[in-house]
Backbone:
């Protein structure tokens, strides 16, 4: 009977740890997939495609940054499959007359985000509450001198 219980215990530990490892692999793949810079197209249904707003992700450090017309936003994020959660978002504090709406809306969208999709270079963030579309962006293809 002891042997049977030992086998059951070992099997349960193995199954639990393998599920954890599978989840880690999936989350790492999602992180790597998201890595890079994106040109922001829309935020909270407002078009910003004519502006040079960039949202960047550093998968190694799980860090996010955004460049706006005036200030920079930065913070951390975590991914669990296609759920994404942004930590506290900080910003530089310059004042730029008429150029600060985008950064406020980006910060608000990121704080409300609960999930994302990334298909063919098109990034979309969805609300944690009602899955409404909060932000869209297009992957910026990195070019090198080769």
Residues:
């Amino acid at each position: 009977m002891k042997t049977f219980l030992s086998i059951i215990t070992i099997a349960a530990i193995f199954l639990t740890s393998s599920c954890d490892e599978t989840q880690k692999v999936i989350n790492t793949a999602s992180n790597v997939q998201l890595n890079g810079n994106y040109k922001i197209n829309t935020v909270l249904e407002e078009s910003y495609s004519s502006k040079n707003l960039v949202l960047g992700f550093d998968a190694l450090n799980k860090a996010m940054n955004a460049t706006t017309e005036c200030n920079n936003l930065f913070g951390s994020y975590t991914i669990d499959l296609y759920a994404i959660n942004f930590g506290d978002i900080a910003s530089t504090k310059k004042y730029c007359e008429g150029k600060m709406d985008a950064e406020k809306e980006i910060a608000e969208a990121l704080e409300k985000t609960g999930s994302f999709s990334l298909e063919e270079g098109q990034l979309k963030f969805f609300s944690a509450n009602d899955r409404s579309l909060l932000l869209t962006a297009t992957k910026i293809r990195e070019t090198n001198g080769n």
Strands lie at 36-43, 46-47, 54-58, 63-67, 72-80, 83-86, 90-91, 113-119, 122-127, 133-139. Residues 22-28 have pLDDT under 50 and may be disordered.
